[in-house]
Amino acid sequence: MDFLTGADYLKFIKGGYRNLAARQDRVNALNVFPVPDGDTGSNMTLTMKAAVEEVERNPKATVGEIAQAVAKGSLMGARGNSGVILSQLFRGMAEELKGYEQIDAATFAEALREASRTAYKMVMKPVEGTILTVSKEAGNGAINAAKNGAEVLGVLQKTIEAANIALAKTPDQLPVLKKAGVVDAGGQGYIFFLEGGLHGILNEEIVLEDIVVRKQVDFELTEDLADITFPYDTELFIKGQVPIEAVRETLGTMGDSVIVVGSDDLTKVHVHTDKPGDVLSYLIGFGELTNIEILNMKDQHAALSHESVQEEEEKELGMVAVAMGEGFEEIFRSLGIDRIVHGGQTMNPSTQDIVDAIESVLAPAVVLLPNNSNVILACEQAKGLTEKQVFVVPTKSMPEGIAAAIGLTDTGEIEERVEAMKESVALVTTGEITYAVRDTEFDNLEIKAGEYLGVANGTIVTTGTDLISIAIELVGKMSTDDSEILSLYYGSDVTEEDAEELATVIEENYPDFDVQVYYGGQEHYYYVLSLE
């Protein structure tokens, strides 16, 4: 094969995705770091999925057009460090392949080398023994093969050989890999992509037995792996022009694992920090912040090590929150909540559940955030069943709980700090969009089963059959002259795309509002809204 056509390059991308998806669990099993960004294999697969979907959304004919679409899709869908780096590999390929209808072996090799160069530039402090090293050696292998006269498939085969050699050396470059007895997860994921790409070009079926399973060993997470200086994994997009180098330098003073990449009008930011609020305050000056995700890596690490309670230092005042929906739970953890009690609407936790959570917090005093009117009494009951000093901040919704957690100060008497939390709750108006389960009448509203319901601070204020119209009317019922920030938390039955579309419509109808979209993951409620 002397040339890769657009059709061939598309087979390369799709084959790589299929192979990576089939082997993502193997990559996940290699992810022995203290969960820097979740599961590497899953992150890379989801990143690739977004890339393929972008190509399929707008079918392209030439190699250059396909490469550009893959770069865009992978950036928008990038998850975690590994996903972002993978997106930058595709960005490098796209830059090299821009304008090409088809490519020869030399151009393909240059694209593979440029992929690595672009990824290295993106990382503030490149670490050898990672996917960066594997991609660099893969690119060098491609260039050497092309110089020696290899055709397109020969270049790709030599690329894979060089990458495998580099991967085998990663444990000698990173002590944590050697300690765990595994190779680098991101590097292995990239190789699975390249191998799948070769199968794709050759129209070969991808089966699990094609790839040799590398040895994996059991391991225990040691104390040094649990020592995370910057526990909050913060990731977001900035809409607008951003001075990437300057932002990267500044974020380097606020944390580590800094990644700042993007185009003229969209930039992706990733950083591990101990003060995510400071990061957001700094970045808001460069444009609109979207797709904000903040994860507490210490909690993730505890789950990975199969420990019910992570190593903690005793504090003066702890916090327990009741929450439903994985998105809301992650938000609460990022705000310093010590224990999450699973439950809420339709699944109220027991008093014993709450007491158990109180007792597990390493603090003599604990604040309870019920986050539901039907849970407040259980929290009050729990106060009398423990010797700890317990304060109930009677939050009736998860947005109120978030406001309370944000309102907790670091100084002052405990009673004063709790009072500040209560004052913060008073500044929030909560809205919810759900559905009617039966016909009824309420406050002069005739409600039919299956219709959408708009609820403001626990009161049904609107009903109808069009969700967007209900949302617009609900926001109008909630708003005051002082309203500025609208947070939109979408539930488990809503797609991110639908949530973003609704946010756009709300901004069009209420241009003075700053609308922010978050994943709540709650059941039964399509959206939970918070207006401040």
Give the CATH class of the largest domain: Mainly Alpha
- Please report the total strand number as a whole number: 18
Q: What's the main sheet like? A: 6 strands, mixed
Oligomeric assembly:
single chain
Q: How many separate helices? A: 21
Structure commentary:
It is globular and about 80 Å long. Residues 32-38, 208-226 and 303-311 have low confidence and may be disordered. It contains 21 helices and 18 strands. Helix 1 (6-22) packs parallel to helix 4 (63-77). It has 4 domains: 3-216, DhaL domain (Serine Threonine Protein Phosphatase 5, Tetratricopeptide repeat); 226-301, Alpha-Beta Plaits, CATH 3.30.70; 312-423, Rossmann fold (3-Layer(aba) Sandwich), CATH 3.40.50.510; 429-531, Hypothetical Protein Tm841, Chain: A,domain 3, CATH 3.30.1180.10. The N and C termini lie far apart (61 Å). The strands form 5 sheets. A 6-stranded mixed beta sheet has the order 15-14-11-18-16-17. The chain has a 4-stranded antiparallel beta sheet with strand order 4-5-3-6, with helices on both faces. Strands 8-7-9-10 form a 4-stranded parallel beta sheet, sandwiched between helices. Helices cover 48% and strands 18% of the residues. By secondary structure, it is of the alpha+beta class.
